[in-house]
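Internal QA ticket QA-208
Title: Verify multi-chain structure generation after dependency bump
Assignee: T.L.

Test input:
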Amino acid sequence: MRLLVINPNTTAAVTDLAASAVRRVLPGVALRAVTGRFGGHYVASRATYAIAAHAALDALAEHGAGCDGVYLACFGDPGLLALKEVSAVPVVGMAEGALHLACTRGRRIGIVTGGALWKPMLEEFAASLGFAGRIAGIRTIAPTGGEIARDPDSALARLAAACRACAAEDGADVVVLGGAALAGLADRIAPDVPVPVLCSVEAGARMALAAAAVRAGRALPPAMASTGLAPALAALLAEPA
Amino acid sequence: MRLLVINPNTTAAVTDLAASAVRRVLPGVALRAVTGRFGGHYVASRATYAIAAHAALDALAEHGAGCDGVYLACFGDPGLLALKEVSAVPVVGMAEGALHLACTRGRRIGIVTGGALWKPMLEEFAASLGFAGRIAGIRTIAPTGGEIARDPDSALARLAAACRACAAEDGADVVVLGGAALAGLADRIAPDVPVPVLCSVEAGARMALAAAAVRAGRALPPAMASTGLAPALAALLAEPA
Amino acid sequence: MRLLVINPNTTAAVTDLAASAVRRVLPGVALRAVTGRFGGHYVASRATYAIAAHAALDALAEHGAGCDGVYLACFGDPGLLALKEVSAVPVVGMAEGALHLACTRGRRIGIVTGGALWKPMLEEFAASLGFAGRIAGIRTIAPTGGEIARDPDSALARLAAACRACAAEDGADVVVLGGAALAGLADRIAPDVPVPVLCSVEAGARMALAAAAVRAGRALPPAMASTGLAPALAALLAEPA
Amino acid sequence: MRLLVINPNTTAAVTDLAASAVRRVLPGVALRAVTGRFGGHYVASRATYAIAAHAALDALAEHGAGCDGVYLACFGDPGLLALKEVSAVPVVGMAEGALHLACTRGRRIGIVTGGALWKPMLEEFAASLGFAGRIAGIRTIAPTGGEIARDPDSALARLAAACRACAAEDGADVVVLGGAALAGLADRIAPDVPVPVLCSVEAGARMALAAAAVRAGRALPPAMASTGLAPALAALLAEPA
Amino acid sequence: MRLLVINPNTTAAVTDLAASAVRRVLPGVALRAVTGRFGGHYVASRATYAIAAHAALDALAEHGAGCDGVYLACFGDPGLLALKEVSAVPVVGMAEGALHLACTRGRRIGIVTGGALWKPMLEEFAASLGFAGRIAGIRTIAPTGGEIARDPDSALARLAAACRACAAEDGADVVVLGGAALAGLADRIAPDVPVPVLCSVEAGARMALAAAAVRAGRALPPAMASTGLAPALAALLAEPA
Amino acid sequence: MRLLVINPNTTAAVTDLAASAVRRVLPGVALRAVTGRFGGHYVASRATYAIAAHAALDALAEHGAGCDGVYLACFGDPGLLALKEVSAVPVVGMAEGALHLACTRGRRIGIVTGGALWKPMLEEFAASLGFAGRIAGIRTIAPTGGEIARDPDSALARLAAACRACAAEDGADVVVLGGAALAGLADRIAPDVPVPVLCSVEAGARMALAAAAVRAGRALPPAMASTGLAPALAALLAEPA
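Actual output:
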C-alpha cells in the first residue's frame, strides 16, 4: 500500500510533522509526503483555503503517479471533492476521515483546532459533508496551527481547556483534535479531558487506509482544456486517467 | 487484533457466510463469530429487529471477553448504541461502518437490500446516525436476506436492477449492497452497475478494524439491576467493565 | 373502551403508579395494567431500553387479547414502532402522546425527567418522531424515575427548577414532566413554574384514548419464524392478527 | 364540555356540515358552531386565507364566552396561532389536530384535499408546525372544498385516486382527507384505498376534545389598542382574559 | 419607478417615518405611502399580525393602481405571500428584503427589534422563507416599535447592547435593525457595534427596487367570491388583474 | 458607482458577453470587466471550479482598486466567500444574487444551466448559502456554458424544455437561467415557459448594485504570508485593506 500524503500549505515542516505521525500509526504503508508549491504558509483564512485547493490539485498531478490512495493532510480538506473528481485512486481528507471515525466513537463530536477563522469554515465544511447533526461544537484557540507547531507546549493548556468545554458545555461525547500541526498532541491532553480525544492525523490516516483498500470503479471526469496551469495539472485535466 | 462478529438473528448459516467474507478481507484478524440465542430466524420486521437488539446484547455479554473490537454483523445494526454503551471495546455496526466508508467514495449513497420492510427501517436508522443528507435512496427487493442466502443466483438480476435504479433514478454515486446474507454478491453484480457497488460486509469490517485500532477511553455506564435476563447479560449490566 | 397499559420495566410499583394516574383521568375506561417479565428494574440506559422493547412486545403478546387500544406507559416508549407493527389495535406511547398533545399547547416544548442518560435518548426519540423542531430543550435531574418514585418529595424542588430553566433558558412555552414514576407530580410543581406543566402520564393517556377511538384499517405484518421466544410472542410473530 | 366550532369562511352550509360530523363522533359534547362574518365564500387562496385569520379572531371574540375549548374547523387552520394567543381556553385547528392524531397511526402521512392552491399552503403550514418530516406528500384535486360540498359524489373517485397515489407513489402509511367540506367522505373512499384514510373533521375534533380536557395555565398576551375592528374583537385585544 | 409603500398598522406617524427613510435612499423613486385602515395601532402580537395581513391586502386593493412595485413596510411582513398572490407587480416585504440583502454581507445574520412577542414570530417568519440556516439569533428589547418611534433616544443604548450581543454571543456577522419605526437608528448605533448594522427600511427598499426592475410574467390567481369586505378588495379578489 | 465584473474562467469572449448584458440593465454603472489569468477555459467540473476560486482572488487583487462593488460573474460563484473575506467593498456572486432576487418572485426556485457536472455542484453551493429549502430542482443540459455561448441557437429548445420540466415536474414557481454564457437567452425562451424565467446575469447584477449601495463596515481579515503567488495577490493577503 502506497499512500500519497498532501500537505496543501507551503510549510514543509508541517508536512514532516504529519508524515511522521502517519508513519507511527501505519508502519506498513509506503508514504510519499509532499508540500504545496504556492499559497499561504498556513491555511488560516478563506482566501488561503481557496488557494490551497488549487495547490492540492497541483500536488496530486505532480506526485500522484503510482500511489494506491491519497491522504489530504490538512484539517478542513481544501480541494477535497476536486481531488476525488480527478484522482484515479481513493482520496480521504483529514477532517473527513477523522470525523467519520469519530462518529463510531460517540454520538456528538466536538472539534478543537487552532486559528479563530477556522470555526465557521469548519462548520460549513462539516455541514457540506452531512455531519451537521453529529457536531456538538467547534472551538478554536487563537494561535494558528502554524504557531502551535512552532511552540506546542504553550498551547497544550488552552487546547485541553477547549476540549473540556466541548464536553461540558457542548455535550460532546468525543473530541477530535484537528490539524496536521497538532499531530501527537491528543495523547498529551487526553488525561485532562473527561471524554476521548482523537488525533485527527491518526484517525484520518486509518480511514484513508481503509478506503484505499476497498477496490471499486470510478466515473471518469470530462477532459478540461485550460490556460496558465502547471504542465502536470493541465495534463491531468486534459486527460483524466 | 481479535474481533467478535455478532450475528443477532438466529440462523447460524448467515453467521458463517458473514464470517467467511470478513476472513477473506481481513486475513490477519482473529475472528470469533456468534449467533443470536433467540429471536427471528431473520431480521425482517420491526418486531424481530427490536428482539435482535436484546439478542445482540446477550451475545456480547456471553462472548465479548478478550476481544479488541466488536462487529455487529446485521445490516441495520439492531442494538448498536446499546452495545456501544456497555462494551469495553469499540463496536461498529455493518450499516454504520459501510455507510461511513461509502461516504468517502461518493457524495450520494444508494442502499440496496432484501426485504421490503427494511426500507423505512433503514431510512430511520440512517437518519438517526446523521446520514440523511447523504442517502440518495434505499431500494429493497422482495426476498429477504434469508431467502437470498438460500438462493443467491435467482436474486442477482433483481439486485443489479435495483442498484442501477439507485444510480439512474436516485442519483447515487455509489451503492452499498447491504446484508450479511448478501456477502460476496457485490462483486458479481458490479459489472452490471454504472457506479461502484460496495459490499456492506467488507466495508463494515474494514471500518470496524480501523475503529478498533484507535485507542481512547470510554465513559462507564451506570450499574443496572435487572430481572429475568441471562446471567452473563445481567452481570454485564450490574457491573459494567 | 378497554385499554392495555404496558409498563415495560420490571417494577410493579411503577405500573401501579401509572395505572392509578390513568384511572383518575379516564374514569370510564377499563384498564389492564401489566409489567415487563424481564429487563432492568428501571429503564435508565440504552441497554435496559433495548431490552424493554422486547419485554413490551412480550407483554403485548401475552395480554393484548381483547383490548381496544394499547398505552405504552414508559416515557421514551421502548419498542413503540415494533408494537404498532404487530398490534391489531392502536398503540400510543407515553412520550409520543404527551408530546403530540403538548404541541397543541405551546410552540416550543420542554421536557424534564429523571436519569441523566435519558437526555440523548429522548433527543433521538423525539427526533425520530419528527418533533425535533418543536423541542426547546430536554433537562434531566440525577435521580432516575425509579428513585423519584420511592422518594418523590425530595425530587420536587429539583424538578421544578429544571422546569423553570426550560422556560427561562430554553424558551419553552410548555413543559412535559416525563415518566411513569412521576405521575401526579406535575400538579405539585406547576405553581412554581411560569409556563404550563403537563403530566406525561395523563397527556399520553388522553392521546391514547383519542387514537383508540378512531377506527381505521391497518397493514398486516409478514409472518416471522423465531427461536427461543415466549410462546405467546412466537405465536404473535408467526401469525399476526 | 362545551366546544366552540369556528368555520372561518363565510358559507354557513359548510359550518353545518362540519358541526354535524363533530356531533356524530362527540355525542356528549355541547357544540356552538359559527361562521365567518366576512371573507371568501371558501378559503382557497392565500388572500382568502389571510382574511380568514381575521374572521376567525372576530368569531372567537364574538362567540367564545363560556366555551371550554375551540375547534378551528378549516383544514389549514387560518389564524391558528393568533387564536391560541388570545383565547382563554385551548384551541386546536383541524389540520393541526388531524395531523397529530395521524402521526400515531403511521410514520408517513399523506394529505388529500380540494383546491390546487392548497398544496403549497399546506406544505408551509405543516412545516411551520414541525410536521415536515412526517409528510409523505400532499395531493389536491381541482374542485375546491366548496365545490366538493355541493357535489360530493362526483369527487369521490378523484379523491380515492389521490389517496391511492399518496400510498403508492409517496409512500404514505396513512392518509388524512382534509377539509370541513369533505366531512363524511373518508368512510366512503376507505374501501378503495390500501392504507387507512382518516377524516380530518373527526380526527381534529377528537384531538380538540383531548386538548380541552387537559387543564393548565396560560400566558396572558399584552393589551393591544386598535382601530376599525368589530367591538368584541377590539375589546378582546384591549383586555385579554 | 413608482413604489407603493404599505404600512399595515394603523399609525400614520410610522408610515411617515418609513416613507421619509425610503425617500432618502431612493431619491429618484416616486412613492405613495399608505396606512392600514383597521387593526392594531402597532403590530406587536400574533393577533394584530393576523389582522394586519388583511389590512395590507385592503390597502393594496385601494391604492395599488399604477404602481410598479410594492414595498410592505412592516418588519415581519404580515400578508406577504397573499399580497404577492394578488398583486400585478412585484411585492417585497421589509424583513424579506432586508434579510436577502443582509445575506450578501455576512454568513450569519442577527436581528434586533422592539417588542418581546416578535422573537418567535420572526423566527417562524424567517424559517418560512428558508432563512433559518442563516439566522444567528433574534433579540428583542421590551419597548415595541411604536414606543421606540415616540422616544427613540431612550432606546438607543438597549438596541446597541442587543446588537453587540448578537455579535458576541450569537456569532452574527451582520445585524439587521428591524422595524419601520426604527428607521434611521442603525447609523446612530453602528459606531457602538463591532459588526455591520443594516437599517431594515433602507435594505428592504433597495431590494424592493431591484425586484421591481426585473420584468417577468406572473401566474394569475383564481377569482374568489367574498362577503363583507371593502369594495376594492372584493373586486381585486373577484377579478385579479 | 463603479463595478468590477470578474469572470473567473479564462475565456474573454464570455467576459464580453456578461459585461454587455450588465451594461444593458445597469446603464449608469461604470464597469471594469476582467478575465481569469489561469484555469479552465470554462468552469464545468470541480477541479476547474477550485482553480477558478484562486483565479478570482488573483483578479480581484490585480483589478479591484477603486471599485465600489464586485460582481463575481460565474454562475456557481467560485471563491465567493474568499473574495468577500479580502475585498474592501461588497462582493455579490451571480448565483448568489440571482437566487436572492428570485426568492422574492416565487416560493420554489428552479435552476437551469449547461454542463451536467454542475448539478451536484450547484446543489451544494445553494445548500451552503442556505437556499436548500427554496430550490425546487436543478436541471442541466449537456452542452456546457462555453458550448452554448458558441452556438446558442441550437441550445434554446433544450433550455426551454428544461425550464418547463422545472415548472411541471419540480413545481418551480420561477426559473433562474444560470450562466454568464447564457446572458440574453432568458428573454428568448420565456414565451415557451409557463412560469417567469430570470436571467442570472441581470438578476445577479441588480443584486450586486443594491448590495454595493448599502454602506456598512467590515471586519478586516488577518494578514497571511504566502509563497509563489502573483505579487498583487500576495500583497492583498499580506496587507488586507
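Spot checks passed. Residues 9 and 36 of chain B are 5 Å apart (CA to CA).
Status: verified.
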